[in-house]
Amino acid sequence: MKTWLITGCSSGFGQRLALAAAERGDRVIATARNVETLREMAARFDGRMLALPLDVTDATSIDAAVAKAIATFGDIDILVNNAGYGLFGAIEEGTAEEYRPLFDVNVFGLIETTRALLPTLRRNGGTIVNMSSGAGIAGSGGGGYYNASKFAVEGLSEALAGELRPFGMRVILVEPGPFRTEFLGRSITMASNEIPEYVTTSRRQYRESNDGKQAGDPDKAVAVILQAVDADEPPLHLPLGPVAHDIVERKLAAFRRDIDAWRDVSIKTDFERP
Questions:
Q1: In the prediction, which pLDDT does 204 show?
Q2: 12 near 88, Cβ under 8 Å?
Q3: What's the CA gap between 140 and 193, in Å, rounded?
Q4: Is 227 exposed, middle or buried (0-12, 13-18, 19+ CB in 10 A)?
């Protein structure tokens, strides 16, 4: 039996992961800013699921949730940093009041939650699952702020994996493409400033035209995440779905084209040897 702490469990992948882990017999600390959204779900599992309030932007809230979780279940084996949201719109359209809170949740909240859990995770060689996105693999017009927040999660996770490997710990970056969760409906905000020049690239119609039509089955995605968590050698990068894999392949190909085209010029930057 493993013990999970999952952030952002009120909907989407967080909720589905909490349910799947509990249904297979594991213990789950399911967290959300509004804990009332979790009460009914937790009541189904006879004490194996603990619902706790946790706001990843509030250090006091994080510390209180971690202390209660450890007091109830002991050491935690798996941390899933799932809480997050998106901001769409051109870079010029975004304002500090819109993009700074995005980084507070998606990046700094993830960092603070991870730091709070690392002592217990280190004790028993735990696993950290950081929910990234296909948007963390390659940037696209209209998603720049969301891309930047997920790129930060990718870099942080890669560094963290190297730091934690000597303790027998694993880090998994989950990089989903479009899945039919509530993300587009409730977890995307749009830049309030609309600049006509960006009408074709700001992705303002993306939510309306794609919400509820995504090809990805979130339950199948959760099954893959569980398989990766259980694996003896899980991947650091776990793209989910054909769209995410296409993003990876295009990024690798574009990167290779740039490197090959400029190699002879760009490598000649060292001091001349005597």
A1: 67
A2: no
A3: 19
A4: exposed
Which DSSP string corresponds to 145-168?
A: HHHHHHHHHHHHHHHHHHHHGGGT
**pLDDT 10s digits, 98-118:** 999 999 999 999 999 999 999
- Is 202 catalytic? The answer is no
Q: Where are the domains of the chain?
A: 3-242
Distance CA 95, CA 97 (A): 5
How many C-beta atoms surround the C-beta of residue 113 within 10 A?
A: 25
H-helix or E-strand containing 18? helix 12-23
The fold for domain 3-242 equals Rossmann fold (3.40.50)
Active-site residue (options: 61, 133, 145, 146): 146
pTM of the model: 0.93
Question: Does residue 10 carry a catalytic annotation?
Answer: yes
Question: Which member of 133, 145, 149, 150 is catalytic?
Answer: 150
Decide if 266 is catalytic. Answer: no
Report the pLDDT averaged over residues 173-182.
81
Q: How distant, in Å, are the alpha carbons of 7, 29, 34, 104, 117 from that of 54? A: 7, 10, 8, 14, 13
User: Of these residues, 61, 132, 149, 157, which one is catalytic?
Assistant: 132
150 is catalytic: yes
